[in-house]
Each structure stands twice: as C-alpha cells, then as structure tokens.
Amino acid sequence: MPSPDEVVTLLSVPHSDSRLFLKIGNEPSTLSLLSSSGTSSGSHLFKECLMGLLNSKTVIYVTHQVEFLPAADIILVMKDGRITQSGKALLLAMAGYKTATILFNKMHLCIFRAPMSFFDATPSGRILNRASTDQNTVDIKIPNQVGAFAFSMIQLLGIVAVMSQVAWQVFIVFIPVITACVWYQQYYIPSARELARLVGVCKAPVIQHFAETISGSTTIRSFNQESRFRDTNMKLMDGYGRPKFYTAGAMEWLCFRMDMLSSITFAFSLVFLISVPEGVINPGIAGLTVTYGLNLNILQAWVIWNLCNMENK
Questions:
Q1: Which fold has domain 91-312?
Q2: What GO annotations for molecular function exist for this entry (predicted)?
Q3: For the CA atoms of the chain, what is the radius of gyration?
Q4: pTM value?
Q5: Per-domain residue ranges for the chain?
Q6: Residue 127 pLDDT > 60, yes or no?
Q7: If DSSP codes are grouped into helix, strand and coil, which group holds residue 77?
C-alpha cells in the first residue's frame, strides 16, 4: 500500500497550475494506487483525476495497464527506448463512422428523390430494414470485423517472419494448410452470402408487420383480433429464425473444420519432432517451432474466420 505522503502528493497534483503532467504507471506510488488498491479504486482514480480534473491538461501516461488505453488520444508502444508502434484508439472507429455517414446520406438522398411508384412497389419493412439493421451493420459490426481481421493478419505476418528466420521448414506443412483453408473459405462464402440475403428477406416482413400492427393497434383491439396478429407475428418470427439458424450452423461448420485442420496439423508436427533422431534438430529450435507453430495454426484459422465473417456481414 502507498504511504500517506505518496497519496497526498498524488492527489495534490490535479490542483496545480501546470499545463503538462507526466504519470509513470509503473512507479510504486501510482502503481499501488491504480493496481494494488483494486480495480474499482484504480478505475475511479483514473476517471475522476485524469479524465475529470485533468481533462483540460496534457497528460503523458506511462503504464502497462491496457484497460486505460481507450481513453488515450494517441498510443505509443515503446521497446528498447524507441517507438515501435503508434496510433490512435479511435482511428478505426472514425474511419467506420465516416464510411457509414457517407452511405447513410446516399441512402437518404435516394429515398427522398425516389418516385411515388417506388413506395407503392416496395414494402415499408424493406426500407426500414435498410435504415436500421443494415445501417447498424455498417456502423458497428463491419468496423469491428475489419479491426479483428487486421489485428489477426498482423499477428500472422509477425509469426511468419519469425518462423522464416529460425525454422523455415515449417512452411512445408503451413502452405498445404493455408491452401486447404482458402478452399474451405471459397466453399463457404457463396452459401453464407445467400443465407445472409435470405435473412434480410425474411426480416423485412417482420418489421413491416410490426409497424402496421403498431399503427393499427386501436382497430385491432376494437375487433378483438389480437390473437390473429400475434399468431401471424410468431409465424413470421419462425420464418426469420430459420435462416438465422442456418447461418449460425454454416459458421460453426467452417469453425469446426478450421479447428480440426489446425489440431491435426499440430499433432502431426509434434509426432514428427518426436520421431526425429536425437541431434538432428536443435531442441531450442524445436521448442520454438512448436510454440510458434501452435499460434500459426490458430491465427491462420482466425484470419480465415474473420475474413468469412466480414464477407458474411
């Protein structure tokens, strides 16, 4: 636990007139307050002090606690006294926001300029589906999927770079595995794309029926037709749930085969390393190969899964 002097010193900092503050997260006083005192206390101190009292000041915060990174305007990753990575936590979110705004404005422009015959031929549920579900996918789901895909791809390329320097022989097994993964992806994508289209087609009647029911609720109650509309809504929900179930089943089909392929490849590599006579392979290189080989198989399956999931959105 920090001493009383350290607590008083740290708590008196926000009340000074300095324009620049340097907070070293690994120093005993700061680390004790943010870590040892508990997650809730550290989060409260960070929120009330750094994000509250010091919100108009420039704060350089050095820490290993990643839960505070989303609040940073810019993040610098240091290694051996040098900046190895830099970026903003909101970079991907801002890119997704600008893209979604452009698509939303174009959609509104097309709807407002559409002739009256378009609204006579197009159900209101289909229009609401584009403005709600599809827009939510563009706003939230696609940026998250792009971030996950980019993160897994960077990790995969890093492991490939390390393995190419210490154990290039692993690519003899890796190349057929990635070929099989690409084949699975090409086999899965057409079905997943069609299932995603069916989900949208089956969801539009649900939204349309719900909107019409809300607008005519007084008439429905007057003629005592609540049970009929409820049964119709349940049938529409069942019809919407079927393609959703098939979509989840297709994704699990792909994940199962990716995991099975990775497990078989890793097991084969272990058997091969054990069967090699002593002295042929350096034990250190063999251990490094096993460690990175496991991550290599998992990451290549994760890259394919993220790519397929992003395509499915």
A1: ABC transporter transmembrane region fold (1.20.1560)
A2: ABC-type xenobiotic transporter activity; ATP binding
A3: 28
A4: 0.61
A5: 4-87, 91-312
A6: yes
A7: strand
